[in-house]
Amino acid sequence: MFTSFPRLIRCVALGGLLGLLVGAARAQAVVPNAVATPPTHPQRLDDFLLLARQNSPLLRETANQVRQNAIDSLVRARQNGVQVAGIGAAVYYPSVTNSQGENVVGYDNAVTNGGNYAALAQATKPLLNRFQLQNDYRILANQGQQLRNAGRLSALDLRRSITDQYLTAYAAKTQLSFSRSLLGQLRQQDAPLRKLVDAGIFKQTQYLSFYLSVRTQEVTVEQDYLAYRRELGLLRTLAGVADTTLVELAAPAPPPPRPLAGLLAPSQRQYTLDSLRLGLDRQAVDAAYRPRLNGVLDAGLQSSSYLPLALAHSVGFGAGLQLAVPIFDGHQRQLQYQRLALQEQSRRGYRQFLTVQRHQQYDQLQGLLRASEALSGRIREQLRVAGALLGAARRQLTTGDVAILDYLNLVTSYRTLQFSLTQAETDRLRNRFALDYLAE
């Protein structure tokens, strides 16, 4: 199952160690443009994305984890060097004898020598552990790559949530602008209609219907205003912006079309890195069953007596080797192999499911994009016709040639079409950005 891992692992070994040394520098890729001056009152999508990247604690934590991984590689290198430790001991073994000189209570003096008094400096150095050391470096390199890939995934998720909320807020702003414009047009008709009512051309009840429509539109403007403030506030919350100034959001520029990303996509690359990690874990199991050899050197004093004269004559040093050889552990090695094999099966299943899912999403979004673009075109054409009819009716209304109720019906139809266009345009932009995410 893991026969393809060694070649991939050697590739990781060549570039992984160097990547660990420059991991802190590459961590800036997780939070790009970190020193850019943020805008005081952001109004564009790019401004909110910049602020969100700079303010995100998750991206900052991921960057710190990448730096910690680089430090871990240095720690592992130090662990393979000479380790010096101080050892101190002051142990007394009392004994009680009877009148015949026989030991009644206490350890056998031949074993304890009566006590142990020591002050040593001991140095140890692992020997002949190149296989385990290189595998540990490869594991650390793989961890660094996974952290950087997780940072890219987090940045992509952040961009997706900020963009989606920006589109929602911009749609609310567009609807508010339209509601205000329509209210202004209705108010312009108020004075001419009163004159026509006073002249007896229109009945008072017809004017009351128009008056009620104006008041209803005023309520609609207030509702749209509150909706825009709410969506803009939520956008600022997601981006970590403390500004509360009411601004006019700029129209978002749709990204150019791009093909579906393949195995280099962060979501796909995660499973490639997991595959490498499983191979390294298997080699780590093999390394744990290799003999371990350490060189040991100590120097100091060690005596069975605490008397100064005995301590003065007990200064010395020693050197040697420590060898540990695994013999039997109840077949744990094979059990660990089986555990890794099950993890590999799960990884392949997730990878296959994600590949099918991404292709299905890409094809579906392309179909939805074409449909939303066609729908927007049809609504724009209907809105153009409705606008022309409304303009003609507005002119005829001042002369009494169009009934007020007919004019109000045209206003209602125009309002409905404008709302439908706002929704269709928002859906079209969401589909465009969703396709762009799948191209990452």
Automatic annotation (TrEMBL):
Keywords: Cell outer membrane, Membrane, Signal, Transmembrane, Transmembrane beta strand. One of its GO terms (cellular component) is cell outer membrane. It is found in: Cell outer membrane. Its main location: membrane. InterPro entries: TolC-like. Residues 1-27 form the signal peptide. GO terms for molecular function: efflux transmembrane transporter activity; porin activity. This is TolC family protein.
